[in-house]
């Protein structure tokens, strides 16, 4: 019987599928455990060997937990709405649904081949109508809710309406738009229906507003900050500009403090928690109102240093600030407008990150200091962001490094308010000084002056103490086709929600996936996209009459809509009435272990926590946090290959032959390079048409040697390794073990196919413990103590490793164990049966086959994980070195429980001792129990 991985793996994958081995029930007497991977976007490129890393780790843990007696939920699905499919549709005219289906089929085939224990009966796809109808419903719940600061949670909008009806809005503690006019109950009750709706929009958890967005003209859509890199769209590398658009937004800012506090209750890495803390950006300080000279307008700023109020030398507004064009003087208008246009081409992320560039323009306007009434110049600068705080800062160069550089660059006078030297740099510390040149704050330290400054600002009505957050409301509209349609229609410009019983609102067919000629989103191309309020269905646009038929929303939801609640759908995916039943939600609660990439720290992970908390507030979700433990797998890096072309030619120089030529460093497909870094030159010429006429400058051995760099595995770098190829040549179990063996799960590590043969060899050696060419060799004899010791060392180590997610060291231990058992000539059932179970989470196919060979009919996935027994590691005997006058002559194995007299008697009677003594009596016998025996004289 030979080990044939391809045959064995196909057999057991078929068995798992036919027997639904990993199907999970929502009712069980066992404790539950929910293991989840961040579900993939099914791109056309399929999986490379870096993608399954986290899946393999979660699969090991899921299989292990199942064998430890847990009812394990381990589902999988697809985040199948997204920009890549839409861009492909624009290029080819093929419907994104067709592309997505083809890509999913490819992904499923690859995932199945690696042998994951997913419960595929629970598969979800965000682009399926039976899924996104619930996303649409959640949106309507957000629309019909407001955030009550008193109860510190979201509530149904009806409770807010009741407050308005009873006492107006003067005493309502709500997260809402700024600058809402006060009204009494009588005034509210006299408002028209339209006036009431307009007012409620200022309070709803999701609302329409003019918002600064990242607009990508080439893609015809708004992009999130994490979809932009260096001012260009991550997809396609197109320019992105800032512009104002009417968009749906989500009041995630209402949850800022709860999102911060919740981090203390979950088991996440400190680096991810810190990323979220920084993104939320809690600051404690004061709101200060500056009056404008020669104007009735005011500028409100938030500052964490109200103690420095007398050091204000100028003010800076974000270029997008509403007041900029209003206050700019005629003399400065051209310069200001030019600066605003230039700033619009830079993303917020770039502006925040760029601390070296100093730029700005004076508006020509002045503000008035709240205490001294001095005139303060008002500038604009792109280091101030419209969405952070109020979009305005009071600049105190004496105490702020960036303000100091700005003032020096534009020759603005700096007021020193500290008893410290600021001739060379700002004094940015919060201690070690007392204030001077600060009127009633003179002589005070930071803490004393902060309290006093806030008191005085409140006394004159120009400020108050305030907690501020960097976290801004999330823009929720996208000008795309391939996304969830909003369940929204418009009556006289006001949004109305479509009731749950009429959902889903299906994505319509369109002729073109590009925006319309007049700039509307792609859904503007749909001919059947209006809502009939009588028949409650989508009808042709030509029927819109403003009475019973109304236009539908043309934007679609962003990619993060469907991924912000999907873990709950897995709990009850066939439910047609609700996103999940109360029973299923209460049983599974939340995800116990979540594995995915750290790049989602301030996107998906933040939005998911927000939606989960919202659904908890409305009693739809059972827990405050969605993911109890989070692990971010590291990246498997590729080894890129480079060729060197002499500039202006099609001649390529071997790396070891480059002298002073000017060469271009170009990527080469790694499949054309052997283990000695030598290029297949004919294959290279055939690879791409532009290389067909390539000529080569070879080294002394007549070879072309490429260069290498370890970097991200990417199709564009031609360094991708396909897992299908590894499975075909070595088997899926080898791939699984090797990916774990590469290094700690959370660290980045380079892929090296050359190292995989060692793991493949280990599996062959494991097989030989159970079978030879003639069949199974397992016997029912009692194993030796050493065999038990090898087994239980491994059980102990693997339990510790899996519980601590140290999967790489388990693979090492398997190798040690198999080597020891091979040397011990172990073929004993009492050892090999539990060994197969211990190996099975890592290499499930070979383990299933070995388990079957041992006579078992059920799957090894249902076998009980072996119990570690300490007694097998307790040494019962000791091999003593026996020395004569300090020189060791032989060794003797003796029980550890012998007394010194018993040891002495046995040693003296040993014939090897008699031969050394030659009839003499030793003068002294030195015995250290458990260590040494030494005979003297």
From TrEMBL:
Pinpoint the Methionyl/Leucyl tRNA synthetase domain residues: 38-145
Q: Which residues form the Leucyl-tRNA synthetase editing domain?
A: 277-457
Enzyme Commission number(s) from the entry: 6.1.1.4
Keywords assigned by UniProt? Aminoacyl-tRNA synthetase, ATP-binding, Cytoplasm, Ligase, Nucleotide-binding, Protein biosynthesis
Q: Which InterPro entries match?
A: aa-tRNA-synth_I_CS (IPR001412), aa-tRNA-synth_Ia (IPR002300), Leu-tRNA-ligase (IPR002302), Leu_tRNA-synth_edit (IPR025709), M/V/L/I-tRNA-synth_anticd-bd (IPR013155), Methionyl/Leucyl_tRNA_Synth (IPR015413), Rossmann-like_a/b/a_fold (IPR014729), tRNAsynth_Ia_anticodon-bd (IPR009080)
Transmembrane parts of this sequence: none
Primary localisation category? cytoplasm
Q: What is this protein called?
A: Leucine--tRNA ligase
For this chain, one GO molecular function annotation is: leucine-tRNA ligase activity
Its localization reads: Cytoplasm
* One Gene Ontology biological process: leucyl-tRNA aminoacylation
